[in-house]
UniProtKB/TrEMBL annotation, chain A:
Organism (species): Cytobacillus praedii
Protein name: Sugar ABC transporter permease
Locations listed in the record: Cell membrane
Membrane topology reported for the UniProt record: Multi-pass membrane protein
Record-linked Pfam families: BPD_transp_1
Length: 287, 432
């Protein structure tokens, strides 16, 4: 046992050192930076809690937070929901499952930047794919990215991009359910829908909860799709915390305030992860 | 057995240690030795010590000067076999060059030579003493420059950057589209508004502009509303003509002046609209000619000054100047093994012959000598500068970047009526 402890310590040390240097040290530096008015390089003045006071009075930060929450909702419902439905459907077919598996998983391997560019070209008013189709069908052009629609339009590729990830998790979980359960239920005359609601979903609840936590916390990291497709616009209508933080830190050289926004994002992320974990406790299932 | 285990453990610990040591950014003596070999080994051909120099410029990406600049560097290396130059240039389009430069300088990784904005962006670097005063630097040749050199003089009285070219901004108009639609190229504010009205009735977008990346639009509308005197105001002055200019953008947006999706387009996309002849006008700078030549439409385009209607101002006043220059880092100048090569490369890049070769790619007014055999469209741009009663730098070169971003990103809110120009200026000034 003593020997085991020594090896545990030995093998964890490099990982601990690396995360310490590249993750925790920058994180604490970031917290320190949030108390300064600084461009991050040559000009730095300690201003105490001024950046935090500014954050709570910042109209744009408030809007960005609400937009991030809204996107989080779409992501949690649609990414996880669609992935679950697709996994159940693919699991129930006898032929072509491999094809669907690859098709649904495919968007995951495309970089967010490429998907962003793709959807920019799809939504473009003047020369975009959707409007070209409409024009060819004899309709007028439609402005797809308006203040009312921009967040939905960003949510579509965001959901599409990650559905495959949750789909694979669900499919693996479903395939682990022993066939005996379904056979026994079939003898009782269970229908397809009942099979899904009473056997499949309850038995993969643990995975479902994990996916929800991942989707909710992952939604705070949404950046590149918004940045490329709408640039947070029109008129900040699709600005999220990630894009606003980037703008403050790297475009405006307001590194101190950017760091404050980053701290705020971490606090929200941790709180949500805590709440989600608290609400959905995992009962370990063994087959 | 036990000793084998201990041996394995020690081996693993050493590997971890080396891995971490390899990530260190400390300028240890070991690193010096590692980097030094090229500098200490004598070159076989000329007997001089090998030197490696890193050059960071904005001549990359869509900048037509990028290719010429690389060729110029290759020629230099050909003639000076002992000098190896790493061209670490990056496009200025996305503004991230500022972060790169600041990161390099603050992490003791500065390039030997840099071609960068000698504006508010370089203040931190200059104040930290990271670049040399060129007038005091031994061997640096600053002869032959026109007035652009003097424009580089810092408020402390020193010159830290040697200019390469000047630039101007203006209204680029597609003459062909104006002719086809029998619309007069505007020379007054009324004619400009009339051109917008007339093009808005056609399938042609009057002005290719982004209201979010609205750098040039904001500047030119402020200039139009107040003339150069008001344009030169400080943000804290809350000049009413700036607010009027911002409100005019909203007015013209309602007239259909800009693309319907102007609030989500970036600069590259609006440039494309103009280059594809889907738009009749665009606010751009003299660097845009390179792209127009590549698109094969430069002959159909001319550049005119923004019509000024504000009292006290006059049409012909333009936004322009010389804001970029060559800097020598103090670190490289103080390094005995590099100084000679750095100064020599600096003098080479800023020599009249090479300077003109690079500048010719963009057609911008050179800081030394004169470009000859200019195409008509480029000559028209140079005439614009020569005839200008007044020229002043872009607004974003003299106000806090955060404040300017706030102004330009708020234009869509002025367009949709949520805010007014006056409100936006007040809120932007509060950030300073």
């Amino acid at each position: 046992m003593k020997g085991d402890k020594f090896y545990i310590f030995l093998f964890l040390t490099p990982a601990f050192l690396i995360s310490g240097i590249f993750l925790y040290y920058p994180f604490f530096e970031n917290i320190k930076l949030s108390f300064y008015k600084t461009d991050g390089f040559f000009n730095s003045t300690f201003i105490g809690f001024d950046n935090y006071i500014r954050l709570f009075n910042d109209e744009i930060a408030r809007g960005s937070t609400l937009n991030s929450f809204e996107l989080m909702l779409y992501v949690a419902i649609f990414q996880v929901g669609i992935a679950l439905v697709l996994a159940i459907m693919v699991n129930s077919i006898k032929r072509g499952a491999a094809f669907y598996r690859i098709t649904f998983f495919f968007p995951i391997v495309i970089s967010g930047a490429a998907i962003g560019l793709l959807f920019t070209l799809i939504y473009n008013y003047r020369n975009g794919l959707l409007n070209e189709i409409l024009i060819n069908l004899g309709f007028e052009r439609v402005l797809w990215l308006t203040e009312q629609s921009s967040l939905y339009m960003v949510a579509i590729p965001t959901v599409w991009n990650y559905v495959g990830f949750y789909f694979v998790i669900f499919l693996t979980a479903i395939q682990k359910i022993p066939q005996d359960y379904y056979d026994a239920a079939a003898l009782e005359g269970i229908t397809g829908f009942q099979k899904m609601m009473k056997i499949t979903i309850p038995l993969i609840l643990g995975d479902l909860k994990t996916c929800l936590v991942l989707a909710i916390t992952g939604a705070l990291k949404i950046f590149e799709l918004v940045y490329i497709i709408t640039k947070g616009g029109p008129a900040r209508s699709s600005e999220v915390l990630g894009t606003y933080m980037y703008q403050k830190a790297f475009v405006d050289s307001a590194m101190g305030y950017g760091a404050t926004l980053a701290v705020f994002m971490v606090v929200i992320g941790l709180t949500l992860a805590f709440i989600t974990n608290k609400f959905i406790k995992n009962d370990k299932l063994t087959y | 057995m036990k000793s084998k285990k201990i041996g394995l453990m020690l081996f693993l610990m050493l590997v971890s240690l080396f891995l971490l040591a390899a990530c260190s950014s400390k300028n240890s003596s070991n690193e010096q030795t590692e980097k030094k070999p090229p500098a200490t080994e004598a070159n076989e051909e000329n007997g001089k010590e090998n030197v490696e120099l890193r050059v960071v410029t904005t001549m990359a990406g869509t900048d037509p000067a990028g290719e010429v600049f690389q060729k110029v560097l290759d020629d230099y290396m050909e003639k000076n076999q002992h000098i190896k130059i790493i061209n670490d240039s990056q496009s200025a389009d996305a503004g991230t060059i500022r972060t790169k430069i600041n990161t390099d300088y603050s992490s003791n990784n500065e390039p030997e030579l840099m071609f960068f904005f000698n504006t508010i962006d370089a203040d931190g670097i200059i104040n930290a003493g990271k670049v040399v005063n060129l007038e005091k630097a031994e061997g640096v040749d600053l002869s032959g420059y026109n007035s652009m050199l003097e424009q580089q003089r810092n408020k402390d009285g020193n010159i830290y950057a040697a200019p390469q070219s000047g630039f101007y901004e203006g209204l680029f108009v597609n003459k062909k589209l104006f002719e086809e639609h029998s619309i007069k190229i505007p020379t007054t504010w009324e004619e400009y508004e009339l051109a917008i009205e007339q093009f808005a009735k056609t399938d042609i977008i009057p002005v290719a502009a982004s209201t979010v990346d609205s750098y040039y639009v904001v500047e030119h509308y402020a200039l139009a509303a107040g003339g150069i005197d008001h344009y030169q105001a400080k943000l804290s002055d809350q000049d009413s003509t700036w607010a009027e200019g911002l409100d005019n953008i909203a007015k013209h947006a309602k007239m259909g002046a800009f693309p319907a999706d102007a609030a989500t387009l970036d600069l590259a996309m609006v440039q494309d609209l103009f280059k594809q002849e889907q738009a009749a006008m665009i606010f751009e700078g003299s660097w845009f000619w390179g792209q127009l030549v590549e698109a094969g439409m430069a002959e159909n385009v001319t550049v005119i000054p923004m019509p000024v209607y504000g009292s006290g101002g006059q049409t012909g006043e333009i936004v322009g100047g010389s804001t970029q220059g060559w800097f020598i880092s103090t670190k490289s100048y103080e390094d005995e093994s590099k100084r000679e090569a750095v100064v020599d490369l600096f003098n080479y890049l800023t020599s009249e012959e090479i300077l003109l070769e690079i500048v010719a790619a963009t057609g911008q007014p050179p800081a030394k000598g004169k470009l000859t055999d200019l195409p008509e469209y480029i000559a028209a741009g140079h005439k614009l500068v020569a005839d200008a009663p007044a020229v002043d730098l872009p607004i974003n070169d003299r106000i806090l970047p955060e404040a300017f971003t706030y102004i330009r990103e708020s234009v869509p809110s002025i367009v949709n009526g949520t805010k007014t120009g006056e409100q936006i200026l007040k809120e932007a000034a509060a950030l300073e």
